[in-house]
Amino acid sequence: MRERRVLLTLALVTTVTAVVSSLGAPLVPAVAARYEVAVASAQWALTATLLAGAVATPVVGRLGNGRLRRPVVLGGLATVLAGCVLAALPLGFGALVAGRALQGVGLALVPLALAAARDTWRGDRLPRVLGLLSVTTVAGAGVGYPVTALVAEHLGLAGAYWFGAALVAITLILAVLDLPVARDSAVQPVDVPGALLLSLGMTAALLAVSQGDAWGWLAPVTLGLLAVGAALLAGWVRRTLRTGHPLVDLRLARRPGVVGPHLVAMALGASMYALLTLVVVVVQAEPGTGATSGDDGYGLGLGIAAAGLVLVPYSVASVAGNQVARRVARRLGPGVVLPVGCAAFAVALGQVALSHQRLWQVLVAMALGGLGSGFTFSSIPALLVPHVPRTETASALAFNQLMRYLGFSVGSALSVALLVALGDDDAALRATLGSFALLCLAAGLVNGATAARSRRA
What we know:
Elements: H1 2-22, H2 28-35, H3 39-42, H4 44-63, H5 69-88, H6 93-103, H7 110-120, H8 125-178, H9 192-215, H10 220-242, H11 250-253, H12 259-284, H13 304-310, H14 312-332, H15 334-354, H16 359-384, H17 393-421, H18 426-456
């Protein structure tokens, strides 16, 4: 009975990531309309969450790696709850973005839930529990997208965030009652200056990218933010290579056989959120949006609930792709899975670029993208682990998670910025999606080249 309650609690903790995600992508056009801001600005309701998750993941992972795990998880859930409440209150667009950033802390709680499972279960049950917790993050999004979108359509944006707050509050109460205490008493130091350099550098760069069309790409503020962002990120790299307790081990990330999977994680992460973002824009835009002479435009004119339902095939296919990829890896080897995933995702982007005039075309592309995502992200750990020492496995996987979240942030901000900069018409949509498709193919080729070098070495 006790183990069942712990499992339910851990499953709800991992589902927080799905709740955070489902309160983002489908609601971006509604945020733009509600606060009368451009879609590129409204996109920060999603980008802020992903950026906060990218920075919080290594910090929370360090803090929660010992006896502080339970208070860190409880504090993280309380932070997500505060973010949902802040986003729900009628305090303006700035408060909404701030609330969404606080919700991003929830993305960092999954590794701690998995660590709690490792402390609780042993033997044959442990792999099944870990698999269940991993699947809930994707399957939960499949349920969360249409549910939160339906709530938003009937109760408005505030209703969607109050709904999220209720779910997180229930999770927090159960975590207080049943979350186990960590067995390991060690507490690892956190590089706070490094975390500040990373968060400020990424924020400056992404703000310049997302607002470059509105401000002017050669405007002093745009160029200044890009320069400041680059300088801060360079400072973070320098500090990470010199400090004894970095957030992530960049030296380990440069090893042969490791570089490729990290690059794929960032490229596929960016492409994934470009696909999710632009599909939501296409589904909700009015018919003929962005039309030019001889062009019917790209809008389907459907509501928020439809946008949420469109994302369900992606989530379901991601889970299925994860299962199929394991069988393919057992028969043909893990090295085959990642290139297939990259290619499938590229085809999905190309499908939306060329054929998005009917809803069924978008649904087929989303299902194919989900398969590509399941193939790709399920194969990365198997490719990384053989190339790193056993004692450094956690560090390598943490860096890959960071690269994935940074990719999410870049894709979220860059996709809309490119669409606007290229003209916000059907040709621009195709060019933007095509660019990310080429990025997926390039990432697969680079991984193949680095893997070949690693085998020769």
